[in-house]
Hints:
Blueprint: H1 6-12, E1 19-22, E2 26-30, E3 38-44, H2 59-75, E4 83-86, H3 90-93, E5 102-106
Antiparallel strand pairs: 1-2, 2-3, 3-5, 4-5
The structure holds guanosine-5'-monophosphate and zinc ion.
Amino acid sequence: MSENCIFCKIIAGEIPSEKIYQDDTVTAFRDIHPVAPTHVLIVPNKHIASVNDLTEEDEQITGRMLTIAQKLAVQEGIGGNGYRLIVNTGPHGGQVVFHLHLHLIGGQKMRHPMG
Ligand code: 5GP
Ligand code: ZN
């Protein structure tokens, strides 16, 4: 856990959130400012600041983030129509919270092209 990290505090239950999944490796909770009917953040329980900070030792964690995204998409009822998975990285990527997170966004046809 990293001090002053909002997502570490959410994982630990120190800050309230609408958690929809948690296991030993990852936690998922609803984004506080959803951009679509479904907007879930899937985060590693371990504090990793961004994709830039990943090592090969983290491959089990990043793999789990994707398979949980798939499971939660089905649980949210958007598996069939599809969804978008986004990992913003660094200032140009639009990353605001520096604890790695995978956005799971769906429930409507995406309007914006990438970039
Ligand atoms: P980023 O731009 O870093 O990829 O996205 C950060 C996301 O975290 C944003 O979509 C923002 O709405 C969400 N977020 C920031 N603070 C909180 C919070 O305290 N609780 C929840 N549930 N989401 C948050
Ligand atoms: Zn953190």
